[in-house]
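Notes continue from the previous slide.

Worked example: a multi-chain complex. Inputs as given:
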Amino acid sequence: MKNQELIREKVTQATQILNEFDVDLWLTFVRETTLSPDPALELIADVDVTWQSAFMLCRDGAHVAIIGRFDRENVEQLGVYPQIIGYDQGIAEHLRTVLAEKAPRTIAINYSENDVAADGLSHGMYRSLQNILAGTPFADRLISGEKIIAALRGRKSPAEVERVRQAIATTEALFDEVEAFAKPGMTQRQIAEFVRGRIDEMGLDYAWPKPFNPIVTCGPDSAVGHAAAGDVVLQKGHTLHLDLGIKQNDYCSDIQRMWYVLDDGETEAPPEVQRAFDVVYGAIKAGESLLTPGTPGWQVDEAARDFIVDNGYPEYMHAFGHLLGRVAHDGATVLGPRWERYAGICELPVEVGNIFTLELHVTVPDRGIMSLEEDVLVTENGVEYLSNPQTALRYIKS
Amino acid sequence: MKNQELIREKVTQATQILNEFDVDLWLTFVRETTLSPDPALELIADVDVTWQSAFMLCRDGAHVAIIGRFDRENVEQLGVYPQIIGYDQGIAEHLRTVLAEKAPRTIAINYSENDVAADGLSHGMYRSLQNILAGTPFADRLISGEKIIAALRGRKSPAEVERVRQAIATTEALFDEVEAFAKPGMTQRQIAEFVRGRIDEMGLDYAWPKPFNPIVTCGPDSAVGHAAAGDVVLQKGHTLHLDLGIKQNDYCSDIQRMWYVLDDGETEAPPEVQRAFDVVYGAIKAGESLLTPGTPGWQVDEAARDFIVDNGYPEYMHAFGHLLGRVAHDGATVLGPRWERYAGICELPVEVGNIFTLELHVTVPDRGIMSLEEDVLVTENGVEYLSNPQTALRYIKS
């Protein structure tokens, strides 16, 4: 499916969502989008624009774009904006005219304290919009579009799910290649560079910046978190962990896999390593069992978090899961605890069509971290795994 | 020069600028910067962060970062933030504490109606900051950081100039390759794909998105502006125009070059084509002569624009020049007319250390457009060309 068709699919979905939330008009107001991208724009218009531009979707199905003259042809080619105004000197008068024609009672704009993916309107552009609308009835009709954007971004269409599925399949094949490649004595960096070499060869992109992708954790001496792969050496008796996300055809994967490096004479992992795997796996299953439409995100997190703590490990200091799509952290909803930094977005309900990561880790002293991450689709009846879940430790032999 | 050293150079420059503008503290407040980048952040911290993060530069030279725990190591490695607070649950209390310690009378934040490069703070993050500061004396001390950011971004350090110079040299070598490659009968797309193939082979990046880079205009039937290279065929007796910008080592070029495709029996361009070249070249020289420190941008534009109109061509419907640096459109100042869409930024004065593009076009009926773009550095004494200016038409032979 080509991008144009995907955009058409999402724009049609947006009209339904406007009606569902009783909003008359959704305004995406942007400029210089290569320097200052609005994450919502790529959902409804796969273009970059230069000067101040307005993309308006109305609940009656009307679509209007006001853009600089030199960007006009690119928006025309999308084929989803029947009314396009290409201006030369300024947008203000055109925008006031279109709003007067459409006479919306509510105008959703792209800001959100909680959801970064719904917060593409800059504060300067907000002030600019206020100036343009000053003296019109529309200045007081602006509302946050966070619900509209969260629904539009979060409810994946079948074509979007298919793209994520492809990215995941590619990622899993890469993990198989890592298993054949990695040997004790290699550094984190060598393993990361092997993976990046393969991604570059295939002409694929990265779900998060390349210097930190994949994250490679070797044994107990690696930093945990978002650090670049460094010089720690993979050793026998240690765990090997990769966190890898690729972007293929505009959609992402985000998966973590675990290996244990067999020590001389070993045929399986020592009990404390195996137990850590079993508990992390069990916690993912515990969370998954609550991942049903309507459940608030924090309850899903709580099930996994309690499982870890009940098994004697310290809780993980992050969320159990996030949405996955055009980027790795694909906006609200978060499957996270009720901490300040997840305020609002951890209260949002799980919806059909959401694709979530499910992830957490524990640490095994002297061995390394144990961290898994699966990618799953929420369906009417529960959860469909898009990744082939890791149900057993994998092994690196020397 | 490595990125760390470049960052250190810019952070030192920022302290001087805070003193120059009498601002106590500059706060860059960001989250999920891969999805929602702030153009100012890359100047002072070459990292991405996940949770709400605060980078604070003080006029006394103090640098403080408050970031999520998992991003801590990356900021430490920069070596320019002696005080780093890595938090787990939320940033609010830490931010209030640091501000209480520093007690700034003014806090510059990243919003600007006029300058997109100084407008990285989202409206949702602005509201979030207001909530965090509610009840403290600092809520009323927020001001726009646009002057600070414009100065920091616009006044290129010697190391930054050197990087732009490298990108330009690479671009000019590519133009030579195009001249050897292009033949009548080829499409815009074939020529663009040749250039992109070479850029990809060299492992370089693009100054603006690849589908629209280079812009290739063949004769009178190509769209003018930001469109993707299409199926128009290069023909004898037509002009060939390329607008190409690469990104090398984080810094950009942005250059336009002109060829004429000799028709059978021709040894030079027909008079109307030659005259168009001469007038466009003359207009660039006319603008260049006013490009001196202290001159407002619109006066530079006016000199070039008047030259075009005085020579009987219609004026170009864009600005004569823009800043060039980490991106192709590198923020304020613009050398543009006093139109609504250049409000504010065309009034700003040219400064020493600015790198500007100088560009404009006219159209030759039945032949195609005639469009040039040079990259120049503003010095104490005037202008230094970083590109080798095109002083004569170039030719494609069959």
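Summary box: The longest helix of chain A spans residues 158-181. The longest strand of chain A covers residues 368-379.
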